[in-house]
Write a structure and sequence with these properties.
28 helices; single chain; alpha+beta; 920 residues; seven-stranded antiparallel beta sheet; globular
């Protein structure tokens, strides 16, 4: 795009330099024989002199994670390709062509029943036109079953003998099936998959930056954390290649409307694979290890049923994980995705589960903490507590089984079970228990506790809170609770998160300041727990949020709403920071991920079965799905440029504004404190041509673009463009857009990818026949003010940002000159001052000039992002005339909400907190 005249040069601006998690220094090039170089030396801290220098401290032993043979091995993909070439077959064999394979792939993934597959192949258009290599379901599945697949299934059938007798006086027995796969084979499959070659790590490292003379460590993937580093030195051999095994288990219902069918899947992944890959179900980097039998255990008396269920779980898990015992002690040779042959030690490193299952895994009563021995009456206080010791726990359990009745068994809240982890090498099961954001924070601390307490503390209570939620402004990333929150009957993780986004704003101005500070501490802690990468500084801020909650929570006791806070999920917050330093950020271990896996690994397979002996059918269904996915990955590897399913789910969303084009605008990257990277390029997407031609009169009347021509004239003068001619009148039409999209900058702490931000400017559209009326949508945004650096009061991360409301998005006709960038007519709000000390949110109101809203025209490239303004009423009760459609126009004062998205929290809460700590 041709550069446009500007009044100020880029050199007139100052930029705040935020903390960043940089890309680690790359390894030296591999030697000619393909073996990784061992010449890379350890970087010492003393070598780093300047601020913001990034350095990587490598593990002391150069042979850790190294190849054990000079010659590279053959990955499964290479072996399959060699076998095909030896037979003179093309890569898509056993299919006749690539198109034949794609048809089969589509059929197996479409969910079509087997009878329908038969009908499909009998269609004349298919039989005579496509002429597939399969002509019925039998030959179709034969080819699917001939594809290379993941490790095969094993079924162990056994009986569970109870203490109750049947009518014949014999002990009652329940039959059970344990479906499982070899965990060592699954680890080898994951480490040897070439699809993960660029996302797999084999040795630990420590990553640092220097900030203001302080060494700051970063915690991201598991290979940057303490467990891997310290475990190699203190427990495992320092020359070993560790495969950190991550397990997850959770019961799930299979029956949809009636019935009691349940499955208990156990999942497995490897911590050496990057977290964002492990968490993506489509990548299949987390595999199904097996199904624990779910029995009613009616053969036992009711008093024994619970403990016998615990014992059954541990016996099944012991059988599942038995191969890890030998492999974890002595290691096993594996060919990895980079071709290297390594001696791999698969060690249980993390177990993802909700609180009841965490207690089941650790043999702890549900009223106690599965990580430490905190007394039950001190769980609500930020007190120091001793971490559980696996060796002492096993000794106590052994003494209890022998009848010695040790005091520690009762004091530590243990259950009389032989743990499955007792013989797993180098396993500290208690530290393996990782944070569960979904059940502990979103559902537990926030929804079940904080919401109910804060609601009861409000004047008007639930009715007032409902009214405030109903009046919250619209935003594309915010769910609107049109009936409030008290009438919601089915809650999911999505509802919890949307409720959190505006909760602090909803209670501010109406509740006791101590209540607001307590809620603020909880919300800040939750949003810090969302970070996918942490530094020492962000963890310190997370700890401050935790302390803020504990410092003010007594208000609920003073108000008579609570007698104590001895709640397991509140206590669990204490263990988040140590777990992040040890295993990695909490999102990588959230049970929300395993619940998404239930769809593919349990529910869809059950629906495809005939509901009889369904576990066997589910295992077969999954084996075929995995074989198809694996073959797709193989073809992408074997055929450069080929993308499996390139036509599925990748099509651009259809829009009523026609075809879109990506427009990358090369301009000075804004302050790293807000755009995350000084080298980033702002990108927006907008319709190729404006779908509307709107007159000036309509812009002023329906869009609220007051005095449009005068404001536009000022813009044209500022940019040295052609002035408005005398023939421009209120009937002159301008090309107008309904919306445009910004790509928010990628922030390592938030996401590995850039996110799309929608900004709308549409007027009210009345009802037409069967089409309902559409409310007006004029989104508030954060805009970069072009202020000379000499006018800036400081380098505060928000010093150049100002809130505005977009009233219309338009472009200049060609006769105005070569200004191609779309424009926005915006109305300004007051500058951002110091945040409110209680809520921590900035307060803004309409900016006026001569009693009119102050407005300007700006290029849309000066818009940083959308934002959410939540109403700040003057009284404790909001006017009931406020609605989501009119509140921005009716209310006079607003909070700039930092909880809309994780990005907003990072910019509006985290970075200012860091700046304050460093400069005050």
């Amino acid at each position: 795009m041709k550069a446009t005249p500007e009044r100020c040069s880029d050199d007139d601006f100052t930029f705040f330099d935020p903390p960043r998690m940089p890309t680690p220094t790359p390894l030296e090039p591999e030697a000619a024989n393909g073996r990784p170089s061992s010449k890379r030396r350890r970087v010492e801290i003393e070598e780093v002199a300047s601020d913001d220098t990034v350095f990587v401290e490598t593990f002391p032993s150069e042979s850790a994670g190294a190849w054990v043979e000079e010659k590279s091995g053959r990955t499964p993909f290479e072996l399959h390709r060699d076998a095909q070439r030896a037979k003179g077959l093309p890569p898509w064999a056993p299919y006749d062509s690539l198109e034949d394979w794609e048809l089969a792939s589509w059929l197996i993934k479409s969910g079509v029943s087997q009878s329908r597959i038969d009908s499909f192949f009998k269609l004349r258009k298919i039989k005579d036109g496509a002429n597939p290599s399969s002509h019925n379901k039998r030959s179709f599945f034969q080819k699917i079953d001939s594809l290379p697949s993941r490790p095969r299934w094993i079924c162990d059938t056994f009986g569970v003998e109870g203490d109750l007798l049947d009518v014949e006086g014999e002990p009652m027995v329940e039959e059970a099936e344990l479906w499982r796969r070899n965990p060592v084979d699954l680890v080898a499959d994951l480490l040897g998959n070439p699809s993960f070659a660029n996302d797999t790590h084999y040795r630990p490292e420590k990553i640092y930056t220097m900030k203001n003379g302080r060494r700051v460590r970063w915690f991201g993937e598991m290979w940057t954390t303490d467990w891997w580093w310290e475990g190699l030195i203190s427990k495992i051999h320092p020359d070993a290649t560790v495969a950190p095994v991550i397990l997850a288990s959770d019961k799930t219902a299979l029956s949809t409307f009636s019935g009691d069918k349940e499955a208990w899947p156990v999942y497995l992944s490897v911590g050496g694979i990057d977290s964002h890959v492990r968490r993506a179900p489509s990548k299949r980097a987390t595999l199904l290890l097996g199904y624990i039998p779910h029995l009613k255990l009616e053969c036992f008396s009711e008093s024994r049923r619970s403990v016998e269920g615990h014992r059954l779980f541990h016996e099944c898990m012991r059988k599942m994980l038995e191969p890890l015992m030998e492999a974890g002690k002595n290691g096993i040779r594996m060919t990895c995705s980079d071709g290297g042959i390594r001696r791999v030690f698969p060690i249980l490193a993390a177990y993802i589960a909700d609180h009841p299952e965490q207690c089941l895994i650790t043999c702890i009563k549900e009223s106690r903490c599965p990580r430490c021995t905190v007394p039950a009456d001190q769980r609500g206080s930020p007190v120091h507590s001793v971490l559980r010791d696996p060796e002492k726990t096993l000794k106590t359990l052994d003494e209890q089984r022998k009848g010695y009745k040790p005091r520690a068994f009762v004091d530590e809240g243990l259950q009389p079970v032989l743990p499955f982890w007792s013989d797993l090498p180098y396993c500290d099961i208690f530290s393996c228990i990782t944070p569960d954001i979904l059940h502990q924070l979103h559902k537990g601390v926030f929804k079940d506790h904080i919401v109910s307490w804060a609601t009861a503390a409000m004047p008007g209570q639930a009715d007032e809170l409902d009214a405030r939620y109903m009046s919250m402004p619209s935003h594309p990333s915010l769910r609107h609770f049109r009936r409030g929150i008290s009438l919601v009957t089915q809650w999911t993780g999505n509802e919890y998160k949307n409720m959190q986004k505006v909760f602090l704003a909803a209670i501010s101005g109406s509740s006791d300041p101590e209540v607001i500070l307590t809620v603020r501490g909880v919300l800040d802690f939750i949003y810090y727990s969302h970070f996918e990468m942490h530094s020492d500084e962000s963890l310190e801020e997370m700890d401050r949020a935790w302390q803020l909650f504990h410092a003010h929570k007594k208000v609920f006791i003073e108000l008579g709403l609570r007698k104590h806070f001895n709640i397991p999920k509140i206590h669990s917050m204490k263990h988040y920071i140590p777990s992040i330093r040890s295993r990695g950020p909490a999102p990588g271990f959230n049970t929300e991920g395993s619940e998404r896996l239930h769809i593919e690994y349990a529910k869809l397979g059950y629906r495809a079965s005939n509901k009889k002996a369904y576990l066997r059918q589910m295992a077969k269904w999954l084996q075929r799905q995995e074989a198809v996915h694996r073959f797709e990955c193989y073809l992408e590897w074997a055929l450069p440029g080929y993308m499996a399913g390139s036509g599925e789910g990748d099509a651009e969303e259809e829009s009523d504004e026609g075809n879109f084009s990506d427009t990358t605008v090369a301009r000075r990257a804004v302050s790293e404190s807000l755009m995350a990277s000084t080298s980033s390029i702002s990108a927006y997407k907008i319709a190729r041509s404006a779908p509307l031609q709107v007159s000036v009169a309509d812009l002023e009347l329906n869009y609220g673009a007051e005095d449009f021509l005068r404001v536009l004239s000022r813009f044209l003068q500022q940019y040295g463009l052609r002035s408005l001619s005398s023939d421009i009148s209120s009937r002159t039409c301008f090309p107008v857009f309904k919306r445009f999209y910004l790509w928010l900058p990628q922030i390592d702490e938030i996401s590995p990818t850039r996110k799309k931000d929608t900004i709308r400017a549409t007027p009210y559209i009345p009802r037409h026949k069967h089409t309902p009326a559409a409310p007006a949508r004029f989104d508030p945004v954060l805009v970069w003010e072009r202020v000379p650096s000499s006018h800036l009061p400081s380098q505060h991360p928000l010093s150049r940002l100002r809130v505005a409301q977009v009233r219309c998005i338009f472009s200049l006709p060609e006769e105005f000159g070569p200004f191609k960038t779309p424009l926005a007519y915006v109305q300004w709000f007051t500058p951002l001052r110091e945040a409110d000390p209680i809520s921590g949110m900035h307060i803004v109101s309409r900016s006026t000039r001569q009693h009119q809203r102050f407005a300007t025209v700006i290029p849309i490239t000066e818009i940083a992002r959308s934002c959410l303004l939540t109403p700040k009423p003057r009284q404790s009760h909001i006017p009931r005339t406020w609605t989501t459609d009119n509140v921005v126009e009716e209310c006079e004062t607003f909070f700039l909400n930092p909880y809309l998205r994780d990005d907003d929290f990072y910019f509006l809460r985290h970075l200012p907190a860091l700046y304050k700590r460093r400069h005050l």
